[in-house]
Write a structure and sequence with these properties.
Layout (H helix, E strand, L loop, with lengths): L2 H6 L1 H51 L4 H10 L6 E7 L2 E9 L1 H13 L3 E11 L2 E9 L1
Antiparallel strand pairs: 1-2, 2-4, 3-4
Length: about 140
C-alpha cells in the first residue's frame, strides 16, 4: 500500500478499527452476560440441591430412632411377631400370620421410617395370611 493512500483514508481507517473494536466488545459483553446467567442458574440449582441434602441429613439423623423402631413391636399383637431385633443401627423384623389390615399397618410404618431397607419380603402363607421379613439399617 502506498503511504499517501493510507494518509488520505486515515480517518476512515480509524473509524473502521474503532467499529471493529466496538463490535467485538459488544459481542464479548453478550457472551459474558450469557455465561453469567448460566452460572447463576447453575448456582441456584446447586444451592437448592445442597438445601435438600441438608434436609435429608436432618431427617435421617433422628436421635430417637430406636424408639421409632420399637413401635414396630406394638402395631400388631405380640403373637404375630416372630422377631424384632435391633442391634446398633441394624433392624431385623419378622412377622407371621398377618391379615391384610395388619400387613398394611406394618408396611406403612416401615416405609415411613427414615431407614435404608436392604431386604423386604412379603409372602402369602395361606389365604389372607401373610409373612413379612425386613432387614434395614439407619
Amino acid at each position: 500500500m502506498n503511504i499517501a493512500l493510507i494518509l488520505r483514508y486515515k480517518n476512515e481507517l480509524l473509524l473502521l478499527v474503532a467499529l471493529i473494536f466496538l463490535i467485538s466488545a459488544y459481542l464479548y459483553k453478550l457472551t459474558k452476560s450469557y455465561q453469567d446467567s448460566i452460572e447463576r442458574v447453575e448456582l441456584a440449582k446447586n444451592i437448592t440441591d445442597f438445601n435438600r441434602v441438608v434436609e435429608l441429613q436432618k431427617s435421617w439423623k433422628v436421635k430417637n430412632m430406636s424408639q421409632n423402631i420399637d413401635t414396630l413391636k406394638s402395631i400388631v399383637p405380640t403373637v404375630k411377631i416372630q422377631e424384632v431385633n435391633i442391634e446398633g443401627d441394624k433392624l431385623k423384623a419378622s412377622y407371621k400370620m398377618l391379615n391384610p389390615n395388619e400387613l398394611n399397618m406394618v408396611v406403612d410404618k416401615i416405609f415411613n421410617l427414615p431407614i435404608q431397607i436392604q431386604q423386604f419380603d412379603v409372602k402369602e402363607s395361606s389365604k389372607e395370611q401373610f409373612m413379612v421379613d425386613v432387614r434395614a439399617t439407619w
